[in-house]
C-alpha cells in the first residue's frame, strides 16, 4: 500500500488494496511501512458512510468551511455566515457543526458556551442559538472549556462520524461544518463520510497576504484531488477602517493581488472580502449577534453580499 504522500501512480503494482481480505498479508505487502495497519484495519466500505447518508437526507446543502492556515478567522466567518443565512430568511433552517475537535470555538462565538446537549431516541439534539439556527460541538461535551482534547486520529474520526450520523438535525437548508486548518484527518474523514451524502461543496477562508494564500492553494488542490466542489473563497480581514480617523489601512498587505487575483489565476469563484472590524472580535468573544445588532455596519453589508453569492453557488447546478 502506498503512503499518503505518494502519488496514485506510484502504488505498487500488486498491492491488494486496503479493502481486500489480503491487505497487509500478500507477498507484495512485505516491506511496506503500512503493512501492519492494512493487516489490522477493517475491510470493506465503512458502514458509517451509509449511516451519514441516511441521517443527512433532509439537509439540502452541506458545506465544509476550510482554511489552509490557522488564524485567518475561519470559525468567525463560519459563525457570521450562519447568522447571516438565518437572518436573511426566517423560514430558512441553518446549523453549524464544529468538527474542529481539538479547538472547538463555535460554542463561545455563537453565545452557547454553557449549554448542554440532550440525547433522545432520535439522537443528539443540537443547541439552538435562534429559532432557525442551531449548533453542535464537542465543546458541549467537555466538563470545562479549558479541557484539552488529546486524541489520536481514529478517535477524532469516530467523533466526526457520530456528529454526522447521530445528531438529530431535522430538516435543514444549510449545514455549515467548521473544520480545523490544513488538510488532515478531520478533512479526510468528513469528505469520506459525506461522499455519498451529497456534499454541496467547500468555502475556503483566507487573509490577503501571500503566506496565507500559499496554504490556500494547497487547500484548493486538496479539494480537487478528493472531488470537493469549491463554492468560493472568502478574503477575511481585507482592510482596516480606523474607528477614530476613518483612515483605511492594509494590516495584511495583498502584495501579490490578494485572494481575488489568486482566484482568477486558479479559476476558482471569489465570494468577496470582509473588512477587519474590532467590533466583530469583541462580539464573537462575548457570543453576541453582530449581524443582528449592527445591520448597517460595512462588515455586515459585505457579509450579506458574500452570502448572496454563496446561495447562488449552492443553487447553481454547474460543477
UniProtKB/TrEMBL annotation:
Tell me the residue numbers annotated for binding [4Fe-4S] cluster 2.
Answer: 242, 245
**One of the GO biological process terms:** iron-sulfur cluster assembly
User: What is the annotated localization of this protein?
Assistant: Cytoplasm; Nucleus
Q: Where is this region: Disordered?
A: 1-20
Read off the Gene3D superfamilies from this record. Answer: P-loop containing nucleotide triphosphate hydrolases
State the UniProt keywords alphabetically: 4Fe-4S, ATP-binding, Cytoplasm, Iron, Iron-sulfur, Metal-binding, Nucleotide-binding
| UniProt function note | Component of the cytosolic iron-sulfur (Fe/S) protein assembly (CIA) machinery. Required for maturation of extramitochondrial Fe-S proteins. The NUBP1-NUBP2 heterotetramer forms a Fe-S scaffold complex, mediating the de novo assembly of an Fe-S cluster and its transfer to target apoproteins. Implicated in the regulation of centrosome duplication. Negatively regulates cilium formation and structure.
Binding partners and assembly: Heterotetramer of 2 NUBP1 and 2 NUBP2 chains.
PANTHER family noted in UniProt: CYTOSOLIC FE-S CLUSTER ASSEMBLY FACTOR NUBP1, NUCLEOTIDE-BINDING PROTEIN NBP35 YEAST -RELATED
Family assignment from sequence similarity: Belongs to the Mrp/NBP35 ATP-binding proteins family. NUBP1/NBP35 subfamily.
- Protein name (record): Cytosolic Fe-S cluster assembly factor NUBP1 homolog
- Native organism: Tribolium castaneum (Red flour beetle)
GN (gene name) = AUGUSTUS-3.0.2_03307
